[in-house]
Structures are given as structure tokens and as C-alpha cells.
Amino acid sequence: MYKDLEGNTAIITGASSGIGRAMALRFGREKMNVVINYRSGEQEVNSIIQEIEQSGGQAIGVYGDVTREEDVKKLVAAAHEHFGSLDVMVNNAGIENEVPSEDLTLEDWRKVLDVNLTGAFLGCREAIDYMLEHGIKGRIINVSSVHEMIPWPHFVHYAASKGGIKMMTETLALEFAPKGIRVNSLGPGAIDTPINAAKFSDPAAKASVEALIPLGYIGKPEEIAAAAAWLASSESSYVTGITLFADGGMTKYPAFQGGHG
């Protein structure tokens, strides 16, 4: 646990399930104020709020589409109105779908880029603007993926969006370091979330993914949330402009494990 996070305010986009939900609950255990952004799952959001409050934190749910500029502005306004500050911005909302690249429509390309990259940019821009205005040395965490580094056939739009997150994070980190605003990315590997539930329920499919992970198992959302808490805390005070991969070693060329190659 990180004592310095107590009383800080964080926005987490796409926080009604999966990794976003785990981060919201972890921040609640850090006794933070959490703005839970969602587009679906209002009942689940209410449950998350109750659990955060039981942990000693505070939380509100705010409906919004991260691709809409006015909705992202409302998120920041809600943080200020309810909690009086914005210290941590987590751009977590993301989508993916499998399509062979020769069949990928412009509509599908734009939809994934709009949510994953443009949505994260809007979150960064609005959070930085608020932090500059109020003299806050804030922290921004962009949720990327191992696929900012590992090519992924049939997911060219997703991989392109995460590659964009990498360079956006590094550029903003360089630009705003003199203001004390730290910008980092978090790169999950294969994580046991609802979006992956069908795949991992198939033993053969699960085993094929585990073979790509040197540590040998599918990660848990709570393990990603732990990394996010560290990036948000003063324990990472000298860290900016990186992608912290929480992937069980997936980015370390597992085919060469055991001296192969």
C-alpha cells in the first residue's frame, strides 16, 4: 500500500469491468477518490462504488464516451466538483476485434483508433490542462499493451493504436516533465478479463497462450492494478516516459526460452 495516495483523486476510463474495475478497487483500498467512467454496466459500477467506500475510499460513477470531447471534459469537471482535484488520470478504455487486414473496413479501423488512441489523447489533454491550471504535479497512466511492441496479425488496427499510445506517452512525458507531470504507459499481456473469457475457457486455446508466457500463466487484473498503483505513487517518482510491461515476460521472445534458436 502507498500512504501518499490517500486522499488523491483519480479518473479511470472504462472502469466497469476487467482491468479498469481492478484498478478502481485497488485505488479504493489506497483510500483514494475514484471517478469511475463507464459506457455500460451501471449496476456493476454501483457495486464497485460500494466496495470502494467499504475500503475507506470514495467514488462516483460518470457515464461517458471517451471519443466525445465533451464527455471527457465532463469527467474532469466531475472530479473537480466532487473531490476538488485531479491527481491521477488513467486512460484505460479500449476495444479490439479480430479482422484479417485485407477485410478491415475503414469504419472498424476508425472505431478502434478513436477509442484506444484518440480517447487516450483526449484524456491526457484534459488532465494535463487541469493539472497545469491548478499547479498539480500529476500522474498520467495510459493503458497500452504488449502489442505496442509485438506485431499481431488480424489486429492491425489494435496494434497501431497501441503503438500510437507508446509514442504519445513518450512525447507528453518529455513535454511536461519540467512541470512535474509524469506520463507513463502500462502494457498488460494476456490477462483473465471478461473480454478473454471465451478464449480461456477452451483448454487448448488457453494452453497455446500460456506457451507464449515465460512465467507460464495468464495474468490477473489485480496484478495490473498493482502496477498501476505503483506508477501512481511517489515510489515511482523518478519514472516517466516508459511502458511498464506486466506480461509474465511475453515481450522477452519466449520462443528462445531454454536456449532455443
From TrEMBL:
Domain of life (superkingdom): Bacteria
Pfam (any one): adh_short_C2
SUPFAM superfamilies reported in the protein's UniProt record: NAD(P)-binding Rossmann-fold domains
Family: Belongs to the short-chain dehydrogenases/reductases (SDR) family.
Protein name as catalogued: Glucose-1-dehydrogenase
